[in-house]
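Why do we bother with holo predictions? Because pocket geometry can differ from the apo form. Keep that in mind while you read this record for 6-O-phosphono-beta-D-fructofuranose.
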Amino acid sequence: MTASPNLQTSQMSTNNPSKTAIWNHLKSHAADVKTHNIRDLFAADSARFDHFHTRHDGLLFDYSRQHITADTLPLLIDLAKEMDVEGWREKMFNGDAINTTENRAVLHTALRRPLDQALNVNGENIMSDIQTVRANMRAFCDGVHDGSWTGFTGKRLTSIVNIGIGGSDLGPYMVCEALKSWQIEGIKTYFVSNVDGSHIAETLKQIDPETTLFLVASKTFTTQETMANADTAKNWLIEHLGDNAAVAKHFAAMSTNEPAVSAFGINPDLMFPFENWVGGRFSLWSSIGLSIALSIGFDQFETLLDGAYSMDQHFQTAPLEENIPVLMALLGVWNRNFLGYDAQSILPYDQYLHRFPAFLQQLDMESNGKHVSRDGEEIKDYETGPIIFGEPGTNGQHAFFQLLHQGTSIIPCDFIAPITSQNPLGDHHKLLLTNMLAQAEAMMRGRTLSEANGNPQKVFEGNRPSNILLFDGITPYHLGQLVALYEHKTFVQGIIWNINSFDQFGVELGKEMANAILSGDNKDMSNIGILPFLQKPS
Ligand code: F6P
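The structure, written out:
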């Protein structure tokens, strides 16, 4: 039997999504969808919300304001099947080395799996090491909280300073800020990331060496910024407490690099390891989350893990049509590749989530900002990860929303909000949520020339898509779900775009050049005329 030409194309090059038959089908479908605007689609279907929303365990995902028709998702789901999203999902959860460029498994999901559920990878149950580290973290947290672990002079440790950058900062920092109202009384957490000395200098001004615990968070324990900040903190501590031995009581490390940690002089009892199958931007669930556990207590840290596990289960078992991370990913692919939108705005309507867009920037852009395919080929036929940016509402409304409503680029938005507030003061929460809904509606509906009384400056094109994600409240559990949701969304998009979402070679060249400039070995670079001015401005 001869295969149809479409099937042949599809079988010959399934790794390149744009060479599949379904991709072409989606392209012609997009041309058709563009002839209707979202406002008209709403008008034509009073049950549009019913058709285009789904729920899971306290989360509600409303995608009715996306520029889609009833035919769009089935086609996108066919694309997901064609790219074998389900197969790759199983490989990830099972510990196959899907990070092919670094020949590593991708197992951050194991960190939130119930400890008594064995997971055998290469013949070894990896859950037993996870259990050991978890128990050590708990004992240390409890010791700091109940005062049985004190500083060098016998005082309780009440200031926690996390020193790390990228994934060793953004995740824990975002979570500690989000769960501030869950913080244990008497504990204050600080995050130092920037190599700019002002960051650590301003932090040191606020803390007392006798009551401070420094956490050096670095997967590699070689990152220039982190090591510079850790050295400065160590010197400051020794200078103030007058004894090198103080380091053993005031420094802990979370890393995969035990030799470097002990060379730094960290007490081996306070070295909390994790495995190299935990990527930096997926590491808040590992010992890198120690600042979170110290901030909110170990039980609540475990509740955060439970929330993520709930999302893992949903991602693994829900049919693709109802699977929130899959739907979110596919709608993102639709916007990026078929409607041609270059960016995405993340808009949490909750002040506690003010670092969430920054966290997602790394998660998404470091994972999917790539132009070389998993097979090592340059990607020429389609776009990969979009530009991610955002701010909490309502602040963003008074800044960049002008462009979101009336700019020449269309930027799909994710509106994210808890239904209940941690601080139910007066009408604040009602105002907040009403504003969010109004923004999503205004983007979608717009305002016609006649509605604007003939004034073209006041015309809003509308037809600007968004998602709304609601959850019961900012709790450790729901935050765990939310983060895992975006992790899986990012994963699914990477699979569809045929890229390895788990390496980050794009950050290397700048690091190498900085080292070359530092050592004066920059002869291979173009003539850097400005270099002398960095040392001595005119
Ligand atoms: O520069 C990028 C990066 O490698 C991130 O991927 C990582 O999260 C960050 O640096 C920090 O790395 P480390 O935890 O090894 O200090």
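The pocket of 6-O-phosphono-beta-D-fructofuranose is lined by residues 165-168, 218-220, 223, 226, 280-281, 366, 504, 507 (CB under 6 Å).
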